[in-house]
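Order emerges. One example.
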Amino acid sequence: MSKRYAALIADATASRLLPPARRARLQADARAAAQQLNRRYARVLAARFAITLGDELQCLLTSPEPLWEIAHQIRARLPAVDWIVACGLGAISTPLAPTAPEIDGPCFHEARAALDRAKRLRLIFTFGGFPPAIEPLASYYAGLYWSWTPRQRRAATLLRLGDPAAAAAALDVDRSAVSHLARRMAWPLVAAGDKMFRTLLETA
């Protein structure tokens, strides 16, 4: 049986509409983020992050377990735009290589198809080759994301990565401001849904 990998493609939405200076800054920030992510997740990367098409990040993981955290690290490190994070589960058809764009196979095809579907359906965290039960959770995630203000989206990303104190520090606000935001976002309910989503993703 072929080994399964998890391919990740993160696409900056509407980046081609940015003014040239802002797009250049995004691309520079994405290159820096790729280097940071390669260091942080070296133990679980089958092939390192690399930039493709100017504003796309790709990597190949040995399992789907880190996908949730990595998706939110990308959003946290590159908050200037919204990111679609598309994940594909499956085999590869070429030898492993140092970076993800040098590799091809079903997991990348699944991720690319998931990205195309996300653009049509306005999803923001999407999957191919995963159990069908994950699809409603992807819709739940997108529904919440687009119902929030940009400030709430940023707070949600930070809360998904750490505790309220860390989120307050990153936002440069008092802890009480984060608590207020979390109440308005019904965070206990969001956290319960996130737990189901993350568990299903990690055990795919």
Summary: The radius of gyration is 17 Å. The mean pLDDT is 93. The helical segments are 20-40, 67-77, 106-121, 134-147, 150-161, 164-171, 175-184, 187-202.
